[in-house]
Amino acid sequence: MTMSAVFSFIFREFKKILPPTIFFGIGFNLILFTTNLLLGDYQIHLSSYVIATTAALVVGKAVLVANALPFFHHLNSAPLIQSVLFKSGIYFTVVAIARFLEKLIEFLLHGGRPDGLLAYVATHFTWNRFFAIQIWIAVLFLIYTYISELSALFGDGELFRILFARRSTGLKEAHRMRFKTLAKLGRLIDTHTADELLDPKTAVHSEMNTLIRGLSAAAAHGQFSPDTRRL
């Protein structure tokens, strides 16, 4: 493997790990900050925020591991809620295992003996803190996975453009009509044969052409044509 291929691989992996790391970095630090406010501890402890950010990096790496699992995309064709819950559950499990192993490795690196692992887990492991953090991780993963699935559903960069680049005037109506048009096309494909759809003499062929022209006009001008609006 050449150096350029190695750097290309590292760059691709970095792009994958960056979104979850930023998301969970903001989430963990926000939880830490609000907890300090609730407890009346208004002093900023830089080390605590560094630990929270480091934990976000661990989560980001766990996301890469989860995405590489062979069964991770098993429910991609299922309803969105099933896919979100399924992937969030995998993320949650992988992160829980990674955090648990991290604590055990930390124990060993600080002079702990392998035969003392069970005693450490039984007597010194901070289970309350561990599960409290895992609950917040579960909540954050549900939000993260839902946003990721919506982004994949809308297409490359479309969700970002909807949120930050496009004006909201008419956008909801435009997308509603687009989905309605695509649903209409789907029903035509399900209820008619390919020969009927491709035969210029049939009414269904004319209807299909009208729908496609409407979508093409919408893509070209950023709005839907009168023909599409009547669907």
Give the SSE layout.
Elements: H1 3-38, H2 46-67, H3 80-109, H4 117-123, H5 127-154, H6 158-165, H7 171-191, H8 194-198, H9 203-221, H10 226-229
Helix content: over 70%
Indicate the overall shape: elongated
Instruction: Give the tally of β-strands.
Output: 0
Biggest beta sheet summary: none
Q: What portion of residues belong to β-strands?
A: under 5%
Secondary-structure-derived class: mainly alpha
Give the overall average pLDDT.
77
User: How many independent structural domains?
Assistant: 2
The separation of the N and C termini measures: 55 Å
Taking all Cα atoms into account, the compactness measure Rg is: 25 Å
Order of helices and strands: HHHHHHHHHH
Number of helices: 10
List low-confidence stretches: 223-231
Give a description of the structure:
This protein has 231 residues and is mostly helical. It folds into two domains: 3-163, no CATH class; 168-229. The protein has helices spanning 3-38, 46-67, 80-109, 117-123, 127-154, 158-165, 171-191, 194-198, 203-221, 226-229. The chain is elongated, with a radius of gyration of 25 Å. Mean pLDDT is 77; it is low at 223-231.
